[in-house]
Amino acid sequence: MTTYRIAAIPGDGIGGEVISAGVEVLDALARRDGSFSFTFDSFDWGGEYYKRNGRMMPENGRDLIRDHDAILFGSAGHPEIPDHITLWGLRLAICQPFDQYANVRPTRILPGITSPLRHVSGPELDWVIVRENSEGEYAGVGGRVHQGSPLEAATDVSMFTRLGVARIIRFAFRLAQSRPRRHLTVVTKSNAQRHAMVMWDEVAAEVAGEFPDVTWDKMLVDAMTVRMVMKPDSLDTIVATNLHADILSDLAAALAGSLGIAPTANLNPERDFPSMFEPIHGSAFDITGKGVANPVGTFWSSVMMLEHLGEADAAARLMAAIERVTGDPRCHTPDLGGTARTADVTAAVIAAINGAND
Ligand code: IPM
Ligand code: MG
After folding, report:
1. Structural domains counted in the chain
2. 246 alpha carbon – ligand 1 mean position (Å)
3. Which residue's C-alpha comes closest to atom 9 of ligand 1?
4. Of 224, 255, 286, which one is at a domain's C-terminal end?
C-alpha cells in the first residue's frame, strides 16, 4: 500500500474549514480505493502565526515540507496584516523557491452551476489557463526611494527570462496536446509592452515548431477578455504571464459560475520539489467560521493533486462525485445561491464516493 505524505497548510480565513473538508474527503477516497492512504501533517502557518512570531512561517519552514509528496494549501490573507506581507511571507515563499512555475487553472461549468453568460450552459466553456508562476510581474524586482517626500518614486519591474518563458510555453503546448481540442492561445500585451512581451511572442513561435499537431493563436490580453465572454467555445488551453493570467483566471472563474469552485495546481513539473494544490477563492473573512464556505474548490484541487500523484482512477472518482453533488441544488452553498453548509457538501461528496460505481 502506498502512503502519501501530504503537508496541509490551512492558512487564514476559511482555509481551515475547506482544508479539513478536503482531508475528510481524501481519507474517504483512500478507504474506498484500498490501494493507497494519506498521512497529513498540518502546519499552522499564516496570519495568526505571524501575530505570534513576526513571520508567516518558520525560518526552516520549507525544510519541514520539502520531502512531502504534495502540499494542500488553504489561503493566505489576514485583515490585520498587509496583503503583500501575507503573500510574500507564505504562498510565494513556497511557490518560488520550490520552483512551482506552472500554475494550472482549469475552468468548466460543472453540472447544476449557472454561468452568468446567456446561452452558455456547459460544454462551450472548457478551458485550462496556464499561469507563469515564477517570474514576470511577480518577480519582486523594484524598490521605493525618498519615502515621505514629494520626490518619492517606486518601481515594480516585470522580469522575464527566456528560460522561464520557454518552459511555461512548452508546458502549455504539452498540456494542449493532451486535450481533445489540441489548441493553445498565447496571451501577451506585445503591442504596448515592447520588450519582454515581444520575446514571449518570439519564443511561442519557436516552441510551436515542436508541436506540429497543436494549433495555436495569439491574443492581446485586453482583447482576450472580450473573446472569453463573447466566444468562449473558441478557446481551450491558454497560457499567459503571472499577472495577466491572475486576472484572466478570476474572469474565467466568474464566467464558470463561482470563484468558490475554482481549483489551482502550482506544479514543479520536474518533481524536484513538492507541488502545491489550493482553491483560488482566498481567505473570505466575511464568511469565516460560519460553516458555509464552499469546499468544492478544495475538492477539485484535490483531484488535481491525485492526478499529480498518479492516482488517475481516484481522481476520476472524486471528480465524478463532485459533479454529482454540484448537480443537486440542495448541495449548493450560499455563493451558489443555496443554503447548504460546508459539512453538507462534504458529506454528500463522501456519500457519492462510496456509492459511485457500486
Ligand atoms: C490568486 C490570488 C493571489 C495572486 C493573491 C491572493 C495574491 O489572486 O492565486 O490568483 O495574485 O497570485
Ligand atoms: Mg487571483
Report:
1. 2
2. 6
3. 280
4. 255
CATH number, domain containing residue 36: 3.40.718.10
Give residue 328 CA to ligand 1 midpoint distance, Å: 30
Q: What single letter denotes the amino acid at residue 116? A: P
pTM for the predicted model, two decimal places: 0.96
Q: Which set of grid coordinates corresponds to residue 94?
A: 513556497
Q: Are residues 173 and 284 in the same domain?
A: no
What is the distance in angstroms between the CA of the first residue and the CA of the last residue of the chain? 22
> Which amino acid does the sequence have at 216?
W
Range of the domain at 284: 1-106+261-358
**Torsion angles phi and psi, residue 243, rounded to 5:** -75, -45
Please tell me the residue having the least CA distance from ligand 1 atom 3. Answer: 246
* 15 plus 48 within the same structural domain: yes
Q: DSSP strand E in the chain: where?
A: 2-11, 36-42, 70-75, 102-108, 126-132, 136-145, 153-159, 183-188, 215-220, 237-240, 263-267, 275-279
Q: What is the pLDDT of residue 358?
A: 43
Distance CA 86, CA 105 (A): 22
Choose the residue to mutate in 87, 94, 156, 281 for probing ligand 1, maximizing ligand atoms within 8 Å of C-beta.
87
Measured distance CA(231)–CA(214) in Å, rounded: 20
Query: How many Å lie between the centroid of ligand 1 and the Cα of residue 216?
Result: 27
Taking CA atoms only, the protein residue closest to ligand 1 atom 8 is 246
The torsion defined by the Cα of 327, 331, 333 and 336, in degrees rounded to 10, comes to: 20
Mean pLDDT per block of 10 residues along the chain (358 residues) reads: 97 97 98 96 97 96 98 94 94 96 97 94 94 96 97 98 98 98 98 96 98 98 98 98 97 93 97 97 93 98 98 97 97 96 98 76
